[in-house]
Amino acid sequence: MKKSNPKKRGFTLIEIVIVLAIAALIMVVVFLAVQGAQRSQRDQFRKETSNRVLSAAQQYRGNNSGSSAANAAALASYVSATSGAITANGVTATLDASATPAVPTCTTAATATTATVVYVPANGATADAVYTCLESATGAYKASS
């Protein structure tokens, strides 16, 4: 009489590979969600910093008989930024202190760790403007009060 094979215990190689593939897929989805949330948080910091600089420009204008600051360096004390840099959430935002600031083109997304905030004085316009490039989009973000 033949002996019947006892039931095999354990998993087959195919079953293990399928479980690992599903686990890897779940890890990728979670990683992408976390990356998106971090990018959004960094962009929010850039927007808040731009609004903070715009508020400083308005405060400067109020304290100086309605005249605009000549450049971003004049606003540093109003922004409470030592050496014109503000750091939070792993991003360092610096004020562009060039003599002739211009609206940034932002043809590529901002990097994850840096942000440049550009202050454009009114110079005949009705209001000062503050711009920055975002990581999640191309085109300059304009701060508004």
Structure description:
- It is a single chain.
- This protein is α+β, with helices and mostly antiparallel strands.
- It has one domain.
- The protein has helices spanning 13-63, 72-79, and strands spanning 85-88, 91-96, 114-120, 129-133, 140-142.
- The protein has a five-stranded mixed β-sheet.
- The longest helix has 51 residues, at 13-63.
- The chain starts with 12 loop residues before the first helix and ends with a strand.
Task: Based on the model shown, name its key terms.
145 residues, alpha+beta, 5-stranded mixed beta sheet, 2 helices
% residues in beta strands: 15-25%
Please, how many helices? 2
Q: Kindly report the average pLDDT value.
A: 78
Oligomer: single chain
The secondary-structure class comes to alpha+beta
Strand order of the largest sheet: 1-2-3-4-5
Helix content: 40-55%
Computed over alpha carbons, the radius of gyration is 26 Å
Give the tally of β-strands: 5
What's the helix-strand series?
Answer: HHEEEEE
Poorly predicted runs of 5 or more residues? none
Give the CA-CA distance, first to last residue: 91 Å
Shape call: rod-shaped
Query: What summary fits the major beta sheet?
Result: 5 strands, mixed
What is the domain tally? 1
